[in-house]
């Protein structure tokens, strides 16, 4: 997944969609050091529905991997880099939209305006992270 993500240009207000079988996988957002060591003990966020979204609110690095035993070590991880992009006179580009809201079960729902943002200038990236892995259970 590293080559795939490195070949994409992610922007603020984009949405990452994670699709996977929740019986065999999950998605953990982790720190840089936990990403490199595949340490799943202190995730920033945990996603486990099999149909999860992550709304990119700010430039930076975002690190995700599967928290199931051995999956990160087998390569089921992705590093998303969102560069800081500025327009004329250093003004940040992109129009603000409402971020996704957490549902009562803790999963993150896409923003109601996300389809409008996709048509305008933002993207939704579908990450079949764990289906694309060569790792076999």
UniProtKB/TrEMBL annotation:
GO terms for cellular component: plasma membrane. GO terms for molecular function: electron transfer activity. Residues 1-84 form the Phytocyanin domain. Keywords: Disulfide bond, Glycoprotein. Residues 85-114 are annotated as: Disordered. InterPro entries: Cupredoxin, Phytocyanin-like, Phytocyanin_dom. PANTHER family: BLUE COPPER PROTEIN, MAVICYANIN-LIKE. This is Mavicyanin-like. It comes from Dorcoceras hygrometricum. The lineage of its organism: Eukaryota, Viridiplantae, Streptophyta, Embryophyta, Tracheophyta.
């Amino acid at each position: 997944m590293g080559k795939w993500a490195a070949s994409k240009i992610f922007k603020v207000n984009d949405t990452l969609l994670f699709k996977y079988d929740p019986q065999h996988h999950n998605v953990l957002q982790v720190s840089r050091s936990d990403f490199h060591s595949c340490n799943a003990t202190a995730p920033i966020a945990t996603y486990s529905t099999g149909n999860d979204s992550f709304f990119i609110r700010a430039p930076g690095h975002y690190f995700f991997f599967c928290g199931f035993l051995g999956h990160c070590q087998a390569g089921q991880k992705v590093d998303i880099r969102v560069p800081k992009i500025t327009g004329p006179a250093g003004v940040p580009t992109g129009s603000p939209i409402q971020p996704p809201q957490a549902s009562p079960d803790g999963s993150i729902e896409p923003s109601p305006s996300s389809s409008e943002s996709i048509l305008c200038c933002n993207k939704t990236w579908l990450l079949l992270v764990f289906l694309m892995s060569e790792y076999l259970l």
